[in-house]
Amino acid sequence: MDKAWDAVPGSDGDDVLDLYSQTVMRVAAAVTPHVAAIEMTAPRRNGRMRVGAGSAVLFTEDGYLVTNSHVVAGTRTGHAVFADGSGMELELVGADPLSDLAVLRGRRSKVLPAEFGDAESLRVGQLVVAVGNPLGLSGSVTAGVVSGLGRAIPVWADGTRRVIEDVIQTDAALNPGNSGGALADTRGRIVGINTAVAGAGLGLAIPVNSTTRRIMSSLLTDGRVRRAYLGLVSTPIRLSASEVVRSGQREGLRIVEVLPGSPAEKAGLAAGDIVLTAGGRAVSDAESLQRLLFADAIGEPLDLAVLRHGTGTRLVAVPEEMTSAGR
């Protein structure tokens, strides 16, 4: 990646617009070689037919790629083509609809794996660059800023309503085919996996952080991720001065929506509630809650400290396992 980073000369006294352009070009040169255009296929009577298409990011030297779960939904095989023209056949290792992540296995190739960063370091307003293959146009690059962090987005997938947690919102243009591609910071490190699933003109990306690394590790080893499920849509919120005094915390998670029939609804949670702690741990963003919702949380009572209309209350939710056909 160092050679690619040096491929575009730096600016020397140029104006701000030139500096911006130089930065985007450097990131594009560094990231594009690691992003493949993929086609997922299914068998038919006279061979195979194309079922889905998108992008994927190579993240290991022995040919494993990460993409979106919705890109590979219902398929197990496909083909990848990199910017240098090299290609490889793909096989699905595993997918996790709740995080919208999937891992594919290819083969060892000349292409080096991408360098992953940490989305926890992102700040609203920070420059990011998206690389993917929108509308079949390979190696496309768009740039923008981080518009929001810690979003929780309800989506429909395979006829089922799901909630994708802790999403990065960006104004970098994303279109069908960008899904599964790379969102990079100004050092060329991958900080998100782009997803166009929400539509409505939103640029969204699944963050690369400790939680998504754990998900990818589970997909690599087990082909699936056992996830506990609460069923709420939330957003980070700064507490008012009186709420800080009352709770001893500066931040919490405001519930935007509770999904019908979910463990959150059964526990008595409602839109407008502010979750302060879960299992005795402070929660201030979607990831801090997600970290508590893996296999060992399934069926175990989870104590929640909640602010409701300015008054503190305690509730107990019992997370359920997310199933492929259900939540």
**What is the approximate shape?**
globular
Question: By helix and strand content, what is the structural category?
Answer: alpha+beta
- N-to-C span: 40 Å
Report mean pLDDT, rounded to a whole number. 86
Sequence of secondary-structure elements: HHEEEHEEEEEEEEEHEEHEHEEHEEE
Helix-residue proportion: 10-25%
Number of strands: 20
For the biggest β-sheet, the strand order reads: 1-2-3-6-5-4
Rg is: 21 Å
For the biggest sheet, the summary is:
6 strands, antiparallel, barrel
Low-pLDDT regions: none
Share of β-strand residues: 35-45%
- Count of helical segments? 7
Describe the structure.
With 327 residues, the chain is an alpha+beta fold. It contains seven helices and 20 strands. The protein has helices spanning 2-5, 16-31, 69-72, 210-222, 241-247, 263-267, 286-290, and strands spanning 35-44, 47-58, 64-67, 77-81, 87-96, 101-105, 127-132, 140-157, 160-170, 182-184, 190-195, 203-207, 228-229, 232-238, 251-258, 274-278, 281-282, 302-308, 311-317, 320-321. It has a six-stranded antiparallel beta barrel. A six-stranded antiparallel β-barrel has the order 7-8-9-12-11-10. Strand 5 (87-96) and strand 6 form a beta hairpin. The longest helix has 16 residues, at 16-31. The chain starts with a helix and ends in a 6-residue tail after the last strand. The model has no long low-confidence stretch (mean pLDDT 86).
